[in-house]
Amino acid sequence: MPFDAADLTALIALCRAEIDRHGERLSFLDSAIGDGDHGANMRRGLEAVYREREVIAALPLPAALERIGLVLVMNIGGAAGPLYGTLMMELGRGLPPDADMADFATTLARAVEAVARRGRSGPGDKTLLDVLYPVQAEVAGRAAPARIAECAQSAARATEMMLARRGRASYLGARSVGHEDPGASSCALLTATICQYLKEHAAP
Amino acid sequence: MTAVPPPRPATVGIVIVSHSPLVARGAADMVRQMVGDGVPLAWTGGNAEGGLGTHVAGIEAAIEAAWSEAGVAVFVDLGGAETNSEMAVERLDPARAAKVAICNAPIVEGAVVAAAEASGGSSLARVVATAEELSS
């Protein structure tokens, strides 16, 4: 689908609203197994991107994504800032101009690997990677947006029964089991928001 | 003709990054007590709003404040401090980034031991190795 500045501005506003709506829940999840600030950190990050949305949307898409990554890094803080920042910055740096879906899938795969290196994490460690890996696999398989959104949400729920091996939750050992990972949860919210928009605005 | 003494080699700088400004400042106080003003030293703690956390801009500023041509050794507490420090280092000019090391060492003991080593004029590699012995 064609994707222009108006789409990006709209998506930024939707993502910011979704994170704002679920901020309390993200912090609640984080207080169970972490330091309880994930909702506030994500709100701060998305709010900063929203403030810059006009400038960002005027950039070519790769530069816009890279800029979003930088704004997230500088504003989310916490452990999530470098992870979301790395994802978006790598996407922006890797996408060729006029990228098609195949380019996007390849670049997303590389960006997810960069997040894994940044967090020194892999599948099953109870992090946002447990959403990113399956989402990336669905994107690579050209799944429809609705299917990708559903996959992201079920992947986030599946972190509930995982034992945390990275981040502060790992200090809790077995007690981390039984709580959904807040990073996986915010990642699924954002993925679902983006997919919903793409579904509604797909070229006929 | 007066003999000009060779310039003193630069001393490795120390940066302390904690989620808590109190911890970061306290660790820096302990370093100062140990080595006085002989070692470039800076600390940062807390998120951009002053709560517990770390942020990239604060870490960049601390690295700048403790900058030394001999390099800078960075000490961190929990995971976010480490990844945010990595992002801060990657944002430096590559020639400078190559002279910054994030140490795998306990924040207080590591910073104190590293500063003592640095104050003797040791290289960055030596300073880092001495601090990291604490974790081995």
TrEMBL record, chain A:
Residues 6-196 form the DhaL domain. InterPro entries: DhaK_L_YcgS, DhaL_dom, DhaL_dom_sf, Dihydroxyacetone_Kinase. Pfam families: Dak2 (PF02734). NCBIfam families: dha_L_ycgS. The keyword rRNA processing does not apply. PROSITE patterns: DHAL. This is Dihydroxyacetone kinase subunit L. Signal peptide: none annotated. GO terms for molecular function: kinase activity. Keywords: Kinase, Transferase.
From TrEMBL, chain B:
Residues 11-136 form the PTS EIIA type-4 domain. Coiled coil: none annotated. GO terms for molecular function: kinase activity. The keyword Transferase applies. It catalyses: dihydroxyacetone + phosphoenolpyruvate = dihydroxyacetone phosphate + pyruvate. Transmembrane segments: none annotated. Its EC number is 2.7.1.121. SUPFAM superfamilies: PTS system fructose IIA component-like. InterPro entries: DhaM, DhaM_N, PTS_EIIA_man-typ, PTS_EIIA_man-typ_sf. Keywords: Kinase, Transferase. It is an enzyme of class 2 (transferase). Component of the dihydroxyacetone kinase complex, which is responsible for the phosphoenolpyruvate (PEP)-dependent phosphorylation of dihydroxyacetone. DhaM serves as the phosphoryl donor. Is phosphorylated by phosphoenolpyruvate in an EI- and HPr-dependent reaction, and a phosphorelay system on histidine residues finally leads to phosphoryl transfer to DhaL and dihydroxyacetone. Homodimer. The dihydroxyacetone kinase complex is composed of a homodimer of DhaM, a homodimer of DhaK and the subunit DhaL. NCBIfam families: dha_pts (TIGR02364). This is phosphoenolpyruvate--glycerone phosphotransferase. The lineage of its organism: Bacteria, Pseudomonadati, Pseudomonadota, Alphaproteobacteria, Hyphomicrobiales.
